[in-house]
Amino acid sequence: MPDDEDSRSADPIPEGRLDVPTLQTLAQRAATHPLVDEWAFDPSSVSPRHLQIHLVANAYPADVTAVRIDVRWFVTGDYSFHYLEERDGETSPYQCRWDRHPKTAAPRTHFHPPPDAGEAEPSSLDPHHLDALFAVLDWVSDRVERLHGT
Fold first, then answer.
1. ∠ CA 18-53-112 to the nearest 5 degrees?
2. pLDDT tens digit string along 86-105?
3. Domain range spanning residue 69?
4. Taking the C-alpha atoms of 13, 118, 132 and 102 in order, what is their torsion angle to the nearest 10 degrees?
5. Domain for residue 15, yes or no?
6. Which of 58, 66, 78, 130 is the most exposed place for a label (fewest CB within 10 A)?
7. 43 vs 28, 30, 46, 61, 101, CA distance in Å?
8. Is 14 a member of any domain?
């Protein structure tokens, strides 16, 4: 699978000092959502690069082998929520990303749509960390419903 730092645009995803207390809060609150299986800091809680939120695989069709959201939240209030859905027999994941950071060709708060996290478009994701988290999890819930045709 390609490195999740890979971006389709010339502008990088946010960078700087991670806001670890906010990431811990996001992890604890994400765990209350029915589609969240577990969470972990990658590579570790001592020196995290990002928060990984693993979703319940059996909520998806059988050919979906793994689903996660990689979260970075920075002390500046900038963020990245990167949704990755891996399927049997496919080399590239189905993915999208919500970002908040300065970007020359898009608004500060923007969305890279699926299936390949392509060209950025405006996003209305709230800058508050919990509102942003639950908006992304609502999007995931809608995705699961669409996949099951309900």
1. 75
2. 999 999 999 999 999 988 88
3. 20-147
4. 40
5. no
6. 58
7. 18, 19, 8, 29, 23
8. no
